[in-house]
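Give me the fold.
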Amino acid sequence: MAASLKTLFLPVLLALASCQQVQQQAQPLVSQTAGPTPEYVGTTHPFAAEAVYFLMTDRFVDGDPSNNHEDQGGEYPTFDLPLVAGDGRQANVGYLGGDFKGVLDNAGFIREMGFTAIWMTPVVDNPDEAFAGGEPIEFGGAFKDGGKTGYHGYWGVNFFQVDEHYPSEGLDYRELTRALKEQYGIKTVLDIVTNHGSPSFSMPLDQPKFGEIYDRQGKLIADHQNMAPEQLDPANPLHQFFHTQPDIMQLSNLDDTNPAVLDYFVDAYSYWIEQGAAAFRIDTIKHVPHHFWKAFSDRIRARYPDFFMFGESYDYNANFIAQHTLEKNGNISVLDFPGQQAISKVFSEPASSFAELQGYLHLTHGPYANPYELTTFYDNHDMARMDATDEGFIDAHNWLFTSRGIPVIYMGSEMGYMRGTVEHQGNRNYYGQDNIEMAREHPIRRNLARVAALRQQLPALQRGLQVNVLLEGQRAAFYRVLQHQGIEQTALVLLNKGDETTTFAIDQYLQAGHWQEAQSGETQELEPGQHLEDQVPAHGIRVWVREGPVKHAELERKLGLLMAHK
């Protein structure tokens, strides 16, 4: 805008300031952009609209005791194998009964919290005995598999076959995914593994299924034969699925350079897509080289275009995990581990500052192909559960469901279940129907449902660009802006993680016009140059929404930079 026009507007602004007796900046420059409406969008991927509830299939709810197989395993039993601490605390490394029926019976509970996708631990067939090799696991132990079972699902044996602990009569995986989608509007995320099978060596005697892999017809196609990796014979057809170097403890190390391994997993996981899987979570993705994932993702997406995948690259270096997101490496999203580290700290420590979250966002010039497609979380089954107060969980959810990324919440977090515990201290303990009933009225769950509903209702919170205004101390303020395919929506998010009500007065990037608070329905009609003032209660959230195109020059410049460099 020309200097003469700014001079012309100045007396008007002074008059408004005097009349309304509020502190104001000079009127923002009004956009004079002509031509097509610019596009402002964080991501166009449909999966960005989802919120994901992560559950361990065996540890969720036992809906059908008839599939528990409590007598399975003989000398190496598999059901209910407690690890007990000296003070009486318990964990468990046996099966505990969770199944598809338990998931379906509680799909309403999950959907009412605002989740639209369920990620379950792997459902493929695992060995039928506890592992007799390795080092014995004990309460609080780590990196030991002796005495454990495949209750977690990550010790696959036949990747085309569902494990017998999960289906019920009339409820196989296909029926489960269909019922979740048709009755509850819930997608199913399949947890997949390609870098390892089951524990494969160090057993006193070779146990059935351990170190073995079967094809769709049930034919044995690979067998470690209880031999250490360096003892395997590359000329033996049953050994050719495996590397001759160890990787993770006694797990078989699958040979990613063997085309037959790639063919096997493309076929196996395509089969589960045919059964209704809507996305993949990829276990231990960093243990398999990029060339494998590029070939795998290209072949999957040739059959199922735009199929969403996100990997577990357990590393806190954003530059490292971001490599998976690049097109040349397969364009696979990742769980945001740097974000997890920051989020868990900030919301576990009341004196921490929102400023500590700034670094992991990488909204511009970052290493990720697209930061808005990352799956964001604060804990899971492989690490200590977040050790926060109820208010800390509420604050964490307010942040996760309004800031950039696709939120993922681990089962039980809706009531702070087993907070602070690691894997063999209670992190993976059985959740069960009784806890679900207690969780229904828990304050964490009530607040989670409210903020998840906001994200569900507002496309800007799902896919909009994030423009930070204030991340400091106990307060955060940022915009999410979406201008794409006929949607023109700006959401101003105000967060307070403090113990007292706080007042916000926002003028940066603020457009004039009609603003409505998304939960209460309150409105403010803002004139040019006014600020938006609001009080946010302790551990609360307020989201003000303006419909219509962006017509604020400073905001347009900022959005243009974000679009160019996200």
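The CA atoms of residues 176 and 226 lie 36 Å apart.
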